[in-house]
Amino acid sequence: xxxxxxxxxxxxxxxxxxxxxxxxxxxxxxxxxxxxxxxxxxxxxxxxxxxxxxxxxxxxxxxxxxxxxxxxxxxxxxxxxxxxxxxxxxxxxxxxxxxxxxxxxxxxxxxxxxxxxxxxxxxxxxxxxxxxxxxxxxxxxxxxxxxxxxxxxxxxxxxxxxxxxxxxxxxxxxxxxxxxxxxxxxxxxxxxxxxxxxxxxxxxxxxxxxxxxxxxxxxxxxxxxxxxxxxxxxxxxxxxxxxxxxxxxxxxxxxxxxxxxxxxxxxxxxxxxxxxxxxxxxxxxxxxxxxxxxxxxxxxxxxxxxxxxxxxxxxxxxxxxxxxxxxxxxxxxxxxxxxxxxxxxxxxxxxxxxxxxxxxx
Length: 361
Prior knowledge:
By secondary structure, the chain is mainly α. 86% of the residues lie in helices and 0% in strands. The chain is elongated and about 195 Å long.
């Protein structure tokens, strides 16, 4: 079951009596709503499953009755609201009539009431204008409320403003003097700096000129030195080429002499070899003829011949080292070559000595 809404008149500022008068106008509709609600509950409780045709018809009839109640309530609301609006305007008329009757009197009484206050305010306003005009001679910072100041406070305030004004003027005068002094000093400093810079530029110009001349002189001397070195180098190269040519000719001469000596030595060795070969053949012939002699005597004779050859070879090798040794070789290349040959000859001589020693043993 749906409960009807209860309205508290105190929430709208109404007394209980006035609220009852308004509620009485809506009471028939409220009673009808209770009746319809009972019918609505009976209908909804009787429906099981899908509504029947009778249920649909009854629901339509009940809905139409609810609409009539709602529209009836709206009509009552409109009538009551129009009544109370008209009453409000009626009350406003009474208030306006009272206001028109008393407003002029109240304004006149207010004017009489505030006469002394307005007179004092006018005096203070005039005094404030006067004090502001006087104060503007000394400062642009003009506060409000100057007319409200007592005379002794104003005099002290004005005296402070005057003192601050004249102190400021004095400070500005001193600042201007200091500015002019600094400006004069700066002007003199800039002038002195300009003179110094000009002197420095002249010094740098002269220094650059001196350095340019010195550089030109150094370049001239360097060019002269280069030409001198080139001439000396050309002469040195020419002398060196001549020396190399002479050394080459000398090496070629020594080489020719060396080849000639080698050829002579080769021929001498061939001669010795032929002599040795002839002697060997003679000895072999003798040995062959003496084959019948004892083997020991024949072997001793053969050994004696080999020892003689070895002695001759040793003497020849020693003679070669003596003839071609010493300072006969001029160039380093051939001295090194002779040193290598000399070592080989020395080893050969030592080898003959070793063989001789072994043969003796």
